[in-house]
Input
Amino acid sequence: MHIPDGFLDPWVAGLLWLCAGAAIGIAVRRARGELGDERTPLLGVVAAGIFAAQLLNWPIPGGTSAHFVGGAFAGILLGPSLGVLAMTAVVTIQALVFGDGGIVALGGNLFAVAVVDVWVGYAAFRGLRRVHGAGAAFVAGWAGITASALAVGVGVGLSSAFAYELGTTVSIMVGGHAVLGLVEGGITAAVYGYVADARPDLVLGRGGDSPSPEVGV
Amino acid sequence: MTAATSGSWTRRALLALLILVVLAPAFGAASGAVGYAEPLENAAERTGASDAAVPIVSGPLQDYSVPGLGAPAGTLVSAAVGTGLTLAVALGAGRLLER
Output
């Protein structure tokens, strides 16, 4: 759901840059205490895996398509700070190297995918994981992507290109991604289940709060 | 955590990355054949915003294609370059922040 240039009014784009910049700045500060011999390679691998997975577009009958976005997954596995950093790398490279998402709109795409998706997914997982781990991961994937779509829907709905039709943009974005979000939730839960089985210590928020005491909210 | 177990998960993770990269051209061809739209494009169409999308700059591998290469090969190269670059950037940023 990358926003191209031309879709956002300048003030909307600027505001989203500001919000994304603040959140990424906080993530960078907090990340300093979390990185290390185990977490740094994981940061790289998760970011690269999400970039590659986003290329796998699943065509869905009815003329739409879904691909795994991965922000919630990054938040679950890496925690919110490193999750934001991983997704920031993915979204920025998509825009600068592949023209996927605009340059002026990059702040908006960072806010939606690297901040909202990660934080909402992480919060949902954190709140529900005691009930059921994979279930919490499913809800996290779904809620993260739906909230992210809401952010994009509001952003474009407040812009002149979309004739300020906020109701239309929000309902199409949220409605569409609430359905596609079921796929996101399913993949998030499946990959989470695999990692939680194979290496539970890699999942932040399982079995205590990760190797680093500073982690957590 | 010993170095040996750490090495084994990174090796498996790199293998998984390689598999994802190799799969990319097939998925690209499949969705291209079906012709698809994301909800944002639908919203743009409904509100008359479709023509407002104007790329300001184009990336060196615009739309995951390589100038002079056909679709499957271009997608494969794009996937490999992008995945490798993301790995390098995220690892590099992580190493810098460790200090």
Observations:
- Chain B touches chain A through 63 residues (CB under 8 Å).
- Chain B has a mean pLDDT of 88.
